[in-house]
Amino acid sequence: MSRRYRQWVKEYQHQAWSLARYLLKDAQEAEDAVQDAFVKLWNNQDKIDPERIKPWLMKVTRNGCLDRLRRRRENVEFNESHMAGESSGPMQDVAANELGGWLKRAIEGLKEPYRSLVVLRDVQQHSYEEVAGMLELSLAQVKVYLHRARKELREQLAEVRP
Amino acid sequence: MNKYDENWEQQINALLDGELGKADADDLKTAATDDRDLARAIVEAYQLQQVMDDIPVERAPASLGKRLRAIPREQRRTAGPWLFQPRWVTALAVVPLAIIALNLMQPDTPSEGEIAKARQELAIAFAYLDKAGAMTGRGIESTVGDTMSDAITGSVNRAIKLQNETYKEKEV
Questions:
Q1: What predicted TM-score, i.e. pTM, was given to this entire model?
Q2: Is the peptide bond before A162 cis (omega within 30 degrees of 0)?
């Protein structure tokens, strides 16, 4: 195994998995999606600019997750409405007194690309430029979409906070 | 918040991202003292940021790390022996083509026997051509000659005949 590949696994597996986990809401499927992305990384490592490995990997991980979501669209729609039902019960969440858990579910309930944006920028704290590269959006688009996503989350937070 | 909501929203985001200049930040704070909704929006944004910051980036399970580290080995196995990998197959296919191309480009050097035979065949060919040329020349000569003599004698005969007929008419 090449040393640099091992280094990539060490550095990026957690971020890739976290993103996949938020997008797919399923740990097992998130693992599969991240594995697919790393297989692509292994097979294309000579073609990728070494400086762009992380954005490339995150982009491929996200695209893989979106493909999986498309394939199970009907199921996902059902699940999302089911989860939205859960997260729209703020009292239940507040009663559980777990704001972090509530926020995670709220993020999972966001539509794309808002969800990826919030995860990449606010949870994983990548720079705006990196996020733009990962999502293939302009810097201005990233800012506008992120601002909408945050506003939506803020409004939801205002409902659950006393 | 007022009709400038969108602008304030952008300012709030910039503030949270640490991208808002001091003057703009002061303007925002001043505006917030007079605008209860704006103040509330800023507070909520901070609260959201705080909750976000408390969310740890989830660590991938150990099973994933194991799967990822196994990828190189599995990929090499599924790719088969190195000779069957696409780049090597292509390279190997190019070798015989290159050999054929080089052979075609080589100048053909005939043997002594081949040269002697070729000379002999060339001499026969020239002899044949000479003979054929002579026959053709004679044929042309005779054809042209006949045609020319026909053209001359024919016209003289016709002129004499015409003249005779004219005389006869005059006599009559």
A1: 0.59
A2: no
